[in-house]
Amino acid sequence: MPETFLSWWQFNNARGKQPDMSNKCPPVLHVPAAGEQAQRLAALSQTFISAFTQQPQFFTRAPGRVNLIGEHVDYCGYAVFPMAVEQDILVAVAINTSGRLNICNVDANFPPYSCDINNYEINKERPVWHNYILSGVRGIQDEGGMQQPFIGINMAVTGNVPPSSGLSSSSALVCASALGMAHSHGLSLSQETLAEICARCERHVGTQGGGMDQAIAFLATKDTAKLIEFNPLQATSVTLPPGATFVVANCLAPMNKAANSYFNCRVMECRLATQVMAKKAGLPWRTFQKLGDLQRALDKTLLQMITLVEDSFEVRPYSKRQVCELLNTTPDELNQVSLSENTRHIQEFKLHDRALHVFSEAHRVWEFKKVCVEGGAYALHTLGRLMQESHKSTQLLYECSHPKLDTLVELSKGLALGARLTGAGWGGCMVALVEEDKVEQYKEHLWKSYYSKEAAAEGRPRNTLLFSSPPGPGACVFVK
Ligand code: ADP
Ligand code: NG1
Ligand code: MG
Questions:
Q1: Does residue 107 have an active-site annotation?
Q2: Prediction pTM value
Q3: ipTM of this complex > 0.95?
């Protein structure tokens, strides 16, 4: 029987994967003596000392990531395939005796903030940067097994993950802050526990994300990408075929996910598709949230789920009233059971297209991993094709691309083996698979054909907009 027809469970187990679960805590390393990281930490220390008139006691670091394939499937319970990039968020930390959480940033665009560490609100309505820090701190307060009252903390931040660009600057900030809170209170939490706490607590900013970004931030290891599975969280190192370089290109249209309901709308469309299909199958629909859980309950393969989507839905959008009719419920109950606060106003849901994207993308992730493991003469070309298909699916079925991203993907054809948007989309970055000996030529081509025409690129160093990063390590603590 071909692998693709095995059930979800058989399929996973048949791969004989050996997840590298360590239950290790994030490493505590010495502050590097020289290099760019050392300079950034020195500048961060200066900002900290000026703001708080004390020395930082330690630093935390959490990386951004590039997702190679598996977009908008983590919150449906499906595996993803990211690697950590070199760019990161660094946080300088020291406890204080004032009982306050004081926050500042090296970058003056992010204003300082202060609150009572034992009594603060996270206002989802306002997409402010300090919400990510408050969320990380709140995660440890709620789930780290600590007792009130909490000791006051001073934190200073610096980051070079391009914000709002799909490389997960938000989760790097949440994870570095949570690690700072945990370490300052002497808590030894494993990388897995921290990843799970941070996946939950980042939702305080208002986005209903999966757990990919926080998982790779803590579980990344140098030189390998990771296949990340959820429930239970497992990260498996996967060596990429030789000769492959992943190039990241920023389309220069930022997209702040907490500032609107685009992201949550997709999460809710997937939830509604799950619930409608569960109802049709005679299952208690109110208890189903994720397409992956429905697949498990129905014991079907991903390809069978694709057929089920075709049988269950028309391609057209469904009005809220029609969804209520299918579920035999009222708009009030739908608001309570299925929708987040910032999606209750939405009147139309594309159930067919969103579910079709998720099942086909989840399938591509396993195909991608299989090609990496098995190799072969056409491995790189197959990976490129899967990335190309993934982009089409996010563009046409999930409608989360951006014309500028599509332009970059189009310009990549010929020199790259495949290219796709990475992260949530609606702007931000794309990732392209390029043969090693073509990387410089490819970058030059994008520089001339895209960036030279973009006003927003003027004066910005090329390597901040267009770069290849070897897979980097996960979060750590630095001490002097
Ligand atoms: P991303 O795709 O980068 O994760 P998000 O929209 O999820 O994008 O999060 C971006 C937000 O994260 C920014 O609007 C800002 O509030 C916060 N952020 C990112 N980098 C920094 C930084 N260096 N300093 C302060 N806040 C940051
Ligand atoms: P970005 O674009 O980095 O904020 C978001 C989600 C991920 C995942 C991707 C799409 C959060 C914190 N991150 O990433 O969980 O769903 O989009 O694959 O919500
Ligand atoms: Mg984010």
A1: no
A2: 0.95
A3: yes
